Prior knowledge:
Blueprint: E1 2-10, H1 12-25, E2 30-36, E3 40-43, H2 49-55, E4 60-63, E5 71-72, E6 77-84, H3 88-91, H4 94-111, E7 117-118, E8 138-139, E9 145-154, E10 157-164, H5 170-181, E11 186-187, H6 194-205, H7 208-211
Parallel strand pairs: 1-2, 1-11, 3-4
Antiparallel strand pairs: 2-6, 3-5, 6-10, 7-8, 8-9, 9-10
Amino acid sequence: xxxxxxxxxxxxxxxxxxxxxxxxYATHPILRIYGWDGEWGSLGYFGKLADSRDGLxxxxxxxxxxxxxxxxxxxxxxxxxxVPLSYELARMKGGESYRAIHEILSDVLKAEGGEPDLAPAxxxxxxxxxxxxxxxxxxxxxxxxxxxxxxRRGKLGLLHQGSVATAGDSRLRGELFAERLxxxxxxxxxxxxxxxxxxxxxxxxxxxxxxxxx
Length: 214
C-alpha cells in the first residue's frame, strides 16, 4: 500500500478531484491523508444541498462522488482509501468493506488511548454525518460518533472517503493505519497530474450544476 500525506491544503472541489484522479491512476491501494484550504463541508452524492446549508450555514460546500451525509471538515482528520478492482477489498459488498476498514481504524484509535467500538444498525442515514451514526461507524465509549465514511464502487475499484472527528497525531495515525490495512506499505511523494485534476474540477466538482443537483 502507498501512503501519501498530501502536502497541500486544497479547496473542496480540488480535494474531491484528486481522489477521482487517484482512482483512475492507481495500480495498487493508496491511503491519502489530506487537509482543507478554508472552511469546508462536504455532502454525499444523494444529499440535499438545502439540508447541508441548514446544517453548515455560511460555509463552503462541495458534493462528494460518494454517498453519506454532510461532514464538517473544520478540525477533522480526513483520509481516502483507493483500492483497484484487482484487490479483494474492492470486490467485497459495501457493508463488508465498510466494516473491515472501520474495524482496523477502531484498532488504530484504541492505540491512541480511546475505547472505540463499531455502531450497530439503527436505520438512520443522511443529515449531519456525525449526528447520525450508521452501522459500522466508529463510536466512543459515550456513544458519540468518532469516525464515518462513504464509498463508491465502479469498474476501476473502490473509493472510500473517511473522516475522524479528532485530528490527533496525523502522521503517526496514518502510518499505523497503513500498517494495519496492508501486509506492507511505503510512504510516497506522489506527483499529482495537475492538468487532469483541473479538468475534473472544471467538469464536475467546481460546477454549480454538480453542487446543486439536489
